[in-house]
Amino acid sequence: MLTNQANQYGVVQIALHWLIALTIFGLFGLGLWMVELTYYSSWYLTAPDIHRSIGVIVVSLMILRLLWRLANPKVVPLATHKTWERKLAHVTHALMYVLILLLGISGYMITTAKGQALQVFDWFSIPAISFGIEYQEDIAGDLHEIFAWSLIGLAVLHIAGALKHHFVVRDNTLKRMLP
Ligand code: HEM
Ligand code: HEM
């Protein structure tokens, strides 16, 4: 099934989930690595170019995923999900959406702080908007780093929950996020 059902995620939601999950971890590693590069590395300019371009794509996919999710029937929690788990999972999922959007906004604000457009590969570019914020590049950079670590922290909690339900509770939580 392409669309979500009450007790099973559809192929679109599943494909986007795993594609985005892998990309987020990739961007996190790439981000940490690239900020340590020196001017003499051949990756000094290329790595941030790739990071920014893939960043824009993953944020766009996340928006698509949110719209898809809203347009589909709601996947209901399993009977084995306790009330506190439902609440925690709901807040975690919502925060992950928000943090990925905030990573996109702060990433855009780092890149465009000095009026430079955000170039996405050699496909298109997103023009800079002037916000007139002093030290915009540094502030957005600090926030971007905080958002990235917060997202990874939540993802670890999220993965722990998924694995607990699969191996300890032994319910279908993980299975219904698999094709
Ligand atoms: C539109 C999307 C994005 C853009 C335009 C973008 C842009 C940037 C830029 C320009 C930097 C360099 C900051 C600096 O030199 O201080 C950076 C760093 C970084 N980015 Fe992104 N990014 C995006 C999305 C993401 C996402 C989704 C993640 C996922 C976790 C991420 C994780 C990181 C990390 C970990 C760093 C290193 C932070 C540090 O240690 O200073 N970024 N990003
Ligand atoms: C950065 C990585 C990840 C992000 C951002 C993420 C995000 C999300 C979000 C927002 C949902 C809610 C459903 C939706 O809107 O599509 C979800 C569901 C789910 N995720 Fe992830 N996820 C990540 C990694 C993982 C990993 C590695 C696993 C498995 C080990 C996993 C297992 C699941 C499962 C089982 C569900 C369904 C939960 C339920 O039905 O209550 N996720 N994920």
Low-confidence stretches: none
In N-to-C order, the SSE pattern is: HHHEEH
- Name the strands of the widest sheet in spatial order: 1-2
Decide which structural class fits the backbone: mainly alpha
Rg, nearest Å: 18 Å
Name the hetero compounds present.
protoporphyrin IX containing FE
Q: Please give the number of β-strands.
A: 2
Principal-axes shape call: elongated
Distinctive features:
179 residues, mainly alpha, 2 strands, 3% strand, binds protoporphyrin IX containing FE
Characterization of the model:
This protein is 63% helix and 3% strand. It has 179 residues and is mainly alpha-helical. It has one domain. It has a two-stranded antiparallel ribbon. The radius of gyration is 18 Å and the shape is elongated. It starts with 10 loop residues before the first helix and ends in an 11-residue tail after the last helix. Bound molecules: protoporphyrin IX containing FE (2 copies). Residues 13, 17, 20-21, 24, 69, 75, 89, 93, 96-97, 155, 158-159, 162-163, 173-174, 176-177 line the site of one protoporphyrin IX containing FE (HEM).
